[in-house]
Design a protein that fits this description.
globular; 384 residues; mainly beta; five-stranded mixed beta sheet; four-stranded antiparallel beta sheet
Length: 384
């Protein structure tokens, strides 16, 4: 899996532009515990390993988005096949959206949004300049023509009101608005109603997210990220910007002084060398937990799980310090008492081969290094 390109956004407050929302609520601080080798508050156990079938029709490259809905797994491969795959609860391939020029096919899928409320899948087909709508059985329903040049969909979600929140494109692309990181767009995709998080300086590379927008259907709450400023945002009932959480890495936080003293590539180097942590991504949430990914020491898939009820958190770093053999990867799903990681096959093979107990437990699994990624399910229990 190739590493993501990292960029820091240097942000300042803009109070003179009425298009921007500045409303804020009290911030709930999420503490990421990485300085201890164990935490008896969390009981984490590996429950099952589900390889996603690798066949002529189901093989995909680097996945850009992965959703588990009703025990089905949807994989969006933006780089290689540029389409969406569906697997059952056992990892067996079901189908994919075919490539082509027919109305129900995809020319070049660029972004995908899974609407669990309406049971619809929205795919921005960059090659056809349309958002194509499918149900969760992958049946084509209709298309929405994108006629306005200021819209560049890289990550987007349809709100319960019918409006859209879209992560904007970047100044390297002709047309799309690059003055704000997120746009609130009317239901017909014709008008920008609000802008959020102004982009003041964008140097050298575009900010690359893979999943910065998430709609928590259990709480009807929108969550989105803005990279290295460590805030997790939402919108209130009037579509004003709200800061819900502030992720605190302690001594590893990127400071304002860092931003003043270092250039972009130097700040990125601080994370790569392990002196700083940042670049929040892969936001996930439900009634019980909040999850997100961050970058540290050259690892782009560190993650944290935060218990909303107990206001405690545990990180992948901490789990490895407790049990270094666990096959951890990208956090892709949160359940009421479990979470799921998408793991590269070689890491799972290494874990299985690490002990006779593991080999006996998973003797029926046949995983090869060249296979699709593997889903690893973990139970999570918090001791009072």
């Amino acid at each position: 899996m190739s590493n993501k390109i990292i960029l820091f956004l240097i942000l300042i407050n803009i109070s003179c532009d009425s298009n921007y929302s500045h409303f804020e609520e009290d911030i709930k601080t999420v503490q990421i515990l990485v300085d201890v080798f164990s935490d008896t508050s969390f009981d984490i156990e590996l429950q099952k390993i589900i390889p996603l079938e690798t066949s002529k029709n189901s093989v995909f490259g680097e996945y850009y988005n992965l959703k588990i809905i009703d025990s089905f797994t949807f994989v969006f491969d933006q780089k290689t096949t540029k389409t969406i795959f569906k697997f059952d609860e056992f990892g067996q391939y079901i189908e994919r959206i075919e490539k082509g020029r027919a109305p129900f096919e995809l020319v070049e899928a660029y972004a995908a949004s899974f609407d669990e409320l309406r049971r619809m899948l929205y795919v921005y087909d960059f090659g056809d300049k349309k958002i194509k709508v499918y149900d969760f059985d992958m049946n084509y329903l209709n298309s929405i023509v994108i006629e306005n040049p200021f819209l560049g969909f890289s990550h987007f979600v349809k709100l319960t009101s019918g409006k859209w929140l879209s992560n904007t494109h970047y100044k390297y692309f002709e047309g799309p608005d690059s003055s704000a990181h997120f746009l609130l767009i009317d239901g017909d995709l014709n008008k920008i109603e609000k802008k959020y998080l102004p982009i003041i300086e964008l140097i050298e590379y575009p900010m690359i997210f893979q999943n910065p927008v998430f709609y928590d259907y259990s709480n009807s709450k929108l969550l989105f990220l803005n990279g290295f400023n460590n805030y997790i945002y939402s919108l209130d009932e009037n579509y004003n910007l709200v800061k819900l959480y502030n992720v605190d890495f302690g001594n590893f936080n990127i400071t304002d002084k860092d931003r003043q003293n270092y250039k972009v590539h130097e700040l990125a180097g601080l994370c790569d060398e392990g002196s700083r942590k940042g670049h929040l991504d892969y936001i996930n949430s439900n009634e019980h937990f909040l999850g997100f990914e961050y970058t540290y020491n050259g690892n782009y898939t560190e993650f944290c799980i935060y218990s909303k009820e107990y206001e405690k958190s545990i990180s992948s770093e901490q789990l490895r310090n407790t049990n270094h053999n666990l096959p951890l990867g990208r956090l892709v799903h949160l359940g009421s008492d479990y979470f799921v990681c998408a793991v590269e096959p070689n890491m799972v093979i290494e874990y299985i081969e690490s002990s006779k107990e593991n080999r006996d437990r998973f003797e029926n699994l046949d995983i090869k290094i060249i296979d699709n990624l593997v889903l690893v399910y973990y139970s999570i229990n918090i001791l009072k």
